[in-house]
Amino acid sequence: MQASQSTEKRPAVFTWHIHGSYLYYLSQADIDIYVPLAHPVREGYYGRGQTFPFGSNVKEVPVEQVKELDFDCILFQSPHNFLRDQYEILSEAQRAIPKIYLEHNAPNGAAASSVHPMNDPFVTLVHVTHYNKLMWDQTVPDVRVIEHGIIESPWPYTGELEKGIVVINHIRERGRDTGWDIYEQLKEVIPLDLAGMGTEIYGGLGEILHPQLPQFLSRYRFFLNPIRHTSLGLSFLEAMMGGLPVVALATTEYATVIRNGYTGFVHTNISELIEGMQLLLENRDLAAVMGRHAQRTAKHKYNITRFAKDWEHLIRSVASFQIQTHETESSIH
C-alpha cells in the first residue's frame, strides 16, 4: 500500500482497535483505517474482529507487516499505544509522520489535577467531550474537542417494557466511579435491567453486541446512567438517538446534554431522579414525548455527518501542516 500524503486523496490512518464502537463510527469518515492483528490476540491487536460491520476502508494488517506500509497519520488511543506500542511495531520513519492522540476518558485520578500522559508537543490531542478537556491537565499546545457522532437507529422506540435499562461494562468491578452503589440503591425502588460485559456474573444480562443494541434498547421505557465520573458514554447517546428518554447524574458532560424535564431527568439528588423515573414508568406517553426530544437533540448535536467531517478535516489539516512544515525546514536548511 502506498498512501499519498496529498490532501486530495483519502488519508491512510494507522491505529489500534481499542474501542470497537468508536472505531466503527470513525470508519464512517472518508479515510482508510489500518488496524493490527496479532497472534495470540492481545488488547488493541484484534484486527477488524467479528463484532462490527466494518466497511472495506477498515483494513486488517498482520502486526509483523505494519513496518512495510506507508501511512499519512498515526492515531494513538491509549497510554500504552503512545508509551510502548509505537516503539514496538512502528518503524522510525512511521513514528516521524503526523500523529494524533485520541483521549476517550475523563481523568481516572484527581479530577482537576491529573496530568495527561501524552506529552509530545508535536502530537495533536483530541478529547471527546469539553468536560474531559477542561479537567485534564495537558502539557501540549494543540488540544481539540471532537464530540461524538452516532448513526441513526433503524428501530422505532416503543417503551413497552415498564423498566429502565443500564448499559455499563463491568460496573461492579469499577466501583463508585461507574455508580455500582447507586445502581444497587435504585434497583430496590425502580425496576431496572443491567447489561454490559461481565454483568451476567451478578445478575445482569451480559454483553449486548453493538449491532443488536438499537433494537434491544427500543423496548425499554428509559435509559439510566448512574455513573458519577466518566466520559460521555456511546450507549447513552445511542439510546437518545433511538428515542429513549435519558436519566443521569448532573456530573461530567451529562449536565450539558440532558435538558431536565424535557429530554429526560438530570440531577445530583438521587431522590429527584427516582421521582423522574417513576413518572416515566407511570406515563408511557410522556416517556415517548421526552424520547422524541432526546432523539432530536442527538440528531442535531451528535449526527454522524458532522462527526465524520470533523475527523476528516482534522486528519487532513494535521497531515498538511506537517508536510508544509517539513518542506519549509528543508528549504531553510
Which key features would you list for this structure?
333 residues, Rossmann fold, disordered C terminus, five-stranded parallel β-sheet
Account of the 3D structure:
The protein has 333 residues and is α/β, with parallel strands linked by helices. The protein has two domains: 12-149 and 304-332, 3-Layer(aba) Sandwich (Rossmann fold), CATH 3.40.50; 161-301, Rossmann fold (3-Layer(aba) Sandwich). Helix content is 35%, strand content 17%. It contains twelve helices and twelve strands. The chain has helices spanning 20-26, 79-89, 92-95, 130-135, 171-174, 180-186, 213-218, 234-241, 254-257, 270-282, 284-301, 304-332, and strands at 12-15, 32-37, 58-62, 73-76, 99-103, 124-127, 143-145, 161-167, 192-195, 220-225, 246-249, 264-267. It has a seven-stranded parallel beta sheet. α4 links the parallel β6 and β7 (143-145). α10 packs across α11. The longest helix is centred in the last third of the chain and has 29 residues, at 304-332. It is globular, with a radius of gyration of 21 Å. The two termini are 31 Å apart. Residues 1-7 and 323-333 have low confidence and may be disordered.
Please summarize what this structure is.
The chain is 35% helix and 17% strand. The protein is α/β, with parallel strands linked by helices and 333 residues long. The chain is globular and about 60 Å long.
